[in-house]
Design a protein that fits this description.
Layout: E1 2-7, E2 14-19, H1 26-33, E3 39-44, H2 45-61, E4 66-71, H3 80-92, E5 100-105, H4 107-119, E6 126-130, H5 133-139, E7 144-149, E8 152-159, E9 165-168, H6 177-193, H7 196-204, H8 206-210, H9 214-234, H10 249-258, H11 265-282, H12 288-300, H13 313-326, E10 333-338, E11 341-345, H14 350-358
Parallel strand pairs: 2-9, 3-4, 3-5, 5-6
Antiparallel strand pairs: 1-2, 7-8, 10-11
Bound molecules: glycine.
């Protein structure tokens, strides 16, 4: 079973190919598409150990010259120094504009490799091979690339679309369960903010999804990619509509940062979605059943809806204020009006926000 979703961006359009054992077909597909003459697989040491060898072999069997370049796993690697080191290695190997990069890994690898591809020799082609659920349903699609600097996450980056995205659902078998759940928060985000039918489908098929049954995970990932593609096609550079993909992220980012990144991104987004749903109810935008349904589905998937580590309300507020500075002095929230429909608003009463934040502990 293999599915293809097309991201329609004119001459920068590309396919997202989703299925079991897709990894084995990348060589043949690249040979047909020919985005590059030579390829460099960029991966962290952990994922390279799991899948790098076989991907390299499949490419070689398809007659494609391929190198493997690795960096240490983890968010700590997502910086300009890693990009500089990788660029030097590419230059030493003689890579030029006719060659292409392959991002094999989770969100960190995709963000670093996409950024590197966008600046190396002023831009060379790249493809995404996301191996975490979060990267498969969100970060590998849509062309956001970037690295962190000491002043904040993703503060240096570009919009740069891949030539193709290859999603192999078999790799989810080796993904730590907690990371799978983090990805599920982003999956639930799509249902809660864009598609109520999908939200209900996630509730119905919870057991088989958690058991990683490809009969469910393939259509689930496909539906998320369809929604992301539709949003990106209308607003590639986040001028407006694309901000709906940040449902749960305003408070989520503050939770993540205030915890010193001890809470993973997906879990922080789950807490953020629950909080923002309550905010919508307090503001008279949504009925209480909407917040209850969102909370119940998050809990059904074992996701946290309150902050599981200690820190105080003031710290959390301070991080929201930081966010405020970056959007012209106003905090914008993506508020649910009903399941599958959201509005972007900065009209949130301080008292409501305080009450909701206090409830996140
Ligand atoms: N992760 C949100 C976006 O790609 O716009």
């Amino acid at each position: 079973m293999e599915q293809t979703v097309q991201v329609g961006l004119g001459e920068r359009s590309y396919p997202i190919i989703i299925g079991a054992k897709v990894l084995q077909r990348i060589g043949g597909d690249l040979q047909a598409r020919r985005p590059g003459k030579r390829y460099a697989i960029i991966s962290d040491a952990r994922v390279a150990g799991l899948y790098g060898g076989q991907l390299q072999q499949h490419l070689q069997q398809s007659g494609l010259p391929v190198e493997m370049i690795t960096f240490p796993p983890g968010e700590a690697s997502k910086n300009l120094q890693t990009v500089a080191t990788l660029a030097s290695t590419l230059a030493e190997l003689g890579f030029d504009r006719k060659d292409a990069l392959i991002a094999l890994g989770g969100g960190v690898t995709g963000d670093i490799t996409g950024f590197l591809a966008s600046v190396y020799m002023r831009g060379i082609p790249f493809v995404q091979v996301p191996t975490s659920l979060l990267a498969q349903v969100d970060s590998s699609v849509g062309g956001k690339t970037g690295v962190d600097i000491p002043q904040g996450k993703n503060l240096v980056g570009t919009f740069y679309q891949p030539k193709a995205v290859y999603i192999d659902t078999d790799v989810l078998q080796t993904l730590p369960h907690v990371e799978f759940l983090g990805g599920m928060a982003e999956v639930i985000k799509y249902g809660a903010s864009i598609d109520a039918g999908f939200f209900a489908w996630l509730a119905t098929h919870r057991e088989s999804i958690l058991a990683l049954d490809p009969v469910r995970t393939i259509p689930m990932i496909m539906r998320c990619c369809e929604m992301k593609a539709a949003v990106v096609e209308q607003d590639e550079r986040e001028g407006g509509l694309r901000r709906i993909l940040n449902f749960g992220h305003t408070i989520g980012h503050a939770v993540e940062a205030a915890s010193g990144y001890r809470i993973n991104h997906g879990f922080a987004v789950a807490i953020g979605m629950r909080a923002v749903a309550e905010l919508a109810v307090k503001g008279g935008i949504a009925r209480p059943e909407v917040a209850t349904a969102i909370r119940q589905l998050l809990e059904a998937y074992g996701l946290p809806v309150t902050i599981p580590v200690e820190f105080d309300l003031q710290t959390l507020r301070a991080y929201l204020q930081t966010d405020k500075k970056t959007v012209g002095g106003r905090v914008f929230f993506v508020l649910p009006e009903q399941l599958g429909r959201v509005r972007i608003s900065d009209e949130v009463a301080d008292a409501d926000l305080d009450a909701v934040l206090a409830n996140t502990f």
